[in-house]
Design brief:
The chain is mainly α. The protein has two domains: 112 residues, no CATH class; 41 residues, no CATH class. 75% of the residues lie in helices and 0% in strands. The chain has seven helices and no strands. α1 packs parallel to α3, α3 packs antiparallel against α4 and α6 packs antiparallel against α7. The longest helix is centred in the N-terminal third of the chain and has 27 residues.
Length: 163
């Protein structure tokens, strides 16, 4: 649990650097050359990466990758809204209020499923072998042990007549 809390706090800090690196130059460097804006943004982004890389390592010790990504997106938007309102002086819009429950719903729908492993049933594997291009007939015959008794003799006849 400590790893999740520390990863979340580090991610909030890294997102603050990221948001400033991506958007602060719009307000503060309007008269500067594009190359100067890019170099200054990269300087700020360096601190973001110095936090983001260890954050991903710490977070991945307890959270699956999909959960880590959803956490990233929620924090990113949670950092961006105050940045837009307080630093960039953009008005707080009702859209932000509607977006928050949608993000929460997406999180709640996805997080419980992220830890389930995906397994392909044998029947599906067999059908894909039978339908697959370049599969030999012996592999199809081995797979046919799960097929109905009327299909197995037909497959056996096909193999014996092709030899």
């Amino acid at each position: 649990m400590l790893a999740i809390v520390s990863a979340t706090l580090m991610r909030i800090a890294s997102n603050a650097f990221m948001t400033f690196a991506w958007y602060a130059h719009i307000k503060t460097m309007s008269g500067r050359a594009q190359s100067v804006k890019a170099l200054m943004s990269w300087d700020v982004a360096l601190f973001e990466y110095l936090l983001q890389v260890p954050t991903n390592r710490i977070g991945s010790s307890e959270l699956p990758l999909p959960q880590l990504k959803i956490l990233q997106e929620i924090i990113s938007l949670s950092v961006f809204v105050p940045f837009a309102v307080f630093y960039m002086r953009k008005p707080l819009r009702l859209d932000y209020g509607w977006a928050a429950p949608c993000m929460l719903a997406g999180c709640l729908l996805h997080l419980p499923r992220a830890e389930r492993s995906i397994s392909v049933p044998r029947e599906t594997q067999c059908h894909s072998v039978r339908a697959g291009a370049g599969c030999d007939r012996l592999a199809r015959m081995r797979c046919s042990s799960r097929t109905s008794s009327t299909v197995r003799p037909v497959l056996a006849a096909m193999i014996s007549t092709s030899r």
